[in-house]
Amino acid sequence: MAKEKMTAAQAVVRALELEGVDYIFGIPGGTILPIYDAMFSSKKLKHVLVRHEQVGAHAAEGYAHATGKVGVCFGTSGPGATNLVTGIADAYMDSVPLVAITANVATSLIGTDGFQEADITGITMPITKHNWLVTHPEDVPRVLKEAFYVARTGRPGPVLVDIPKDVLNMNVDFEYPDEVHIPGYLHEPKEKPRLGDAAQLIRSSTRPIIYLGGGVRTSNGFPEVFEFCELVGAPVVTTVHGKGAFPETHDHCLGMFGMHGARYANYAVQNADLIIALGARFDDRVTGKLSTFAPEAKVVHLDVDPAEISKLVTATVPLVGDLKVLLPQLGAEVKRIFQEKGRPDLAPWWKKVNDWRAKYPLRFKQEGEKYILPQTAVDRIWRKCEGRAIVTTGVGEHQMWAAQFWKVSAPRQFITSGGLGTMGFCLPAAIGIQCARPDALVVGIDGDGSFQMTLQDLATAVDLKLPIKIFILNNLFLGMVRQWQELFYDGRFSETPLSDLPDLVKLAEAYHCLGLRARTLEELDGVIDQALAHRDGPCIVDIRVKRQEKVFPMVPAGAPLHDMIGGD
Amino acid sequence: MEKTEQTPSGNVHTLSLLVENKSGVLQRIAGLFGRRGYNIESLAVGPTERPEYSRMTIVVRLEAKPVDQVVRQVQKLVPVIEVKELKPEDLIERELLLVKIKTPEQNHAELRAIADTYEAQIVDVSPDALMIEAAGTAAKLDALEERLVKYGIQELCRSGRIALERGFKTLAPPSLK
After folding, report:
1. Cβ-defined contact of B20 to A183 (cutoff 8 Å)
2. Taking CB atoms and an 8 Å cutoff, what residues of chain B touch A121?
3. Contacts of A133 in chain B (CB under 8 A)
4. What is the mean pLDDT of residues A340-351?
5. ipTM, 2 dp
6. Which pLDDT tens digit goes with each residue over A288-300?
7. Which residue in A75, A92, A256, A258 has the most C-beta neighbors within 10 A?
8. Residue B1's pLDDT is what?
9. What local confidence, expressed as pLDDT, does residue B174 receive?
10. 3-class secondary structure per residue, A117-176
């Protein structure tokens, strides 16, 4: 490629175009002006003007999660950059590929506590895969090439590129590198994966379970996982990010396990003699008390990140590598050993599992209730969407009800904040998802507390006429905290009741979008129909639910996984 | 006369790192140790045979976590080219000590004798103070320090350990050799 003279700011825009970026989520400010000026004449980049940088970062996450591509967000120096921090941390915990680009004060001002100066590379070191402070304009093309490469390869995650304003204005002979050379990045594993040993364990197990995490999504290994699960024939459990990695409507799927998993799913895990963990990291929300987790199980752990192996649960056979490549190889070994020695008899195990499933189903009882149960609302919306919606959530009780009752049958259809647990995720993520998938039905299940953390960006959704539907399960509480107070703090509801503000229908009106409300069960179906039929911009639905309803079953924090409250 | 090393709790491991010689790399590594709860006993960093890389020797004390976990976490940092635990039997380690002792002139002869025993040198002398420089294993320097306590240690400075693996093996991956 011939070299072309341009400013470093223009080089940023050109690099983004060459990386195939279509959407950027951001908001301009003093130091990032040169990039916004350069972008003004770009025909390829579409910039979504958000009202807060946190929303930009979450929207970029939603975009990335829905497409598997890298999400991009912008922030100006100082507060613009620090506002991105929550979104970057969220992406780091959930392995979402994200490139955050920030401008900083001029080089001469760095280190002087200049106006709107923040050491954003220092601040984001613990929450990025890597970050760069670019002090020479000629480094811009190489650094951006590396940034996109690091964000999307290996275990994906966020990176940040910080460029001082004076550097943005300097000239550069633009040449975009074809290849990346980072000597310390992505090491070949030192040992060959012991596929034969893993297959042997699978062959000799009579109570196996397959545990799917977010790594299935990041590897895009959905067909490979399906084929493997069909081959092994074991019960399948997932994390919240594993939802959609295997169809939840499939008979082998026991759904989510962990703190709010079904009893039968947790019992199956606790009684397994082999756990086949695929792209999962044994988070405390799924294991419960670690020392009592699946006491009899051997563990085959496949993960792209070697540091996840034996971090919390010791792997009997670790398999380090890309799931999409490694899992079919494991499958071939398993097939070979099954042909040689016959399949293990899983019938007694399935009988046990199915008995638990029959005895402790995941259920709720609306009959006899005066108010709408939040589970009813989730279930009705799900039924009316007929499996075609991409759903996103905030964080709290509503998120767990959605995780329990929104059955996902296809990949990338359940998008949530898992690791960091960021309230306010729903609306921004919905914006990003709808931008990425303009024809998709995008549904948000949110809570009243969660929604209020980022609601200002209704303006963004209205600007873009995004037909997102946000259903707010409104219990006028910070519900999940209230639930813990009721169960573990003697019902002392310290600072969890929320006043009946704002009026969500009037709020919708103020933002020139459709606002609806359902107070009774009789109103619910009609309101859902109306919301789903609305295509002209966003729709906010205020669903008044039973205020005291709790998420069950529940494993108290630090308790053994089989030690559940409720759901029996 | 070397005494054995005392370990208050946990296990001590010596890690050798080859890293990119760029600004912020020390911060990235120290930050990782801090936030994951790995206690740094000593950290020494300096140039290597190639100007674009630095070598760090980190002595880490671990309460419960296996050292493999530390190695894997450190390896994930982009500017870390290679990291390896050097086993005690496979490594040569050295540390440098400077110590200033405030003591009347009549004790100087005695101190010279102690210094000789430890292959240390007197590097500065004034009427009521002197400075000793010593190099060796951490255990040897600990022993020397103990001997000097009664003369009145005024100031003391240790470099932290540096170490290399015995034999022909090097840390650099084949692509860099």
Report:
1. yes
2. 24
3. 24
4. 97
5. 0.93
6. 999 999 999 999 9
7. A75
8. 40
9. 67
10. CCCHHHHHHHHCCEEEECCCHHHHHHHHHHHHHHHHCCCCCEEEEEEEHHHHHCEEEECC
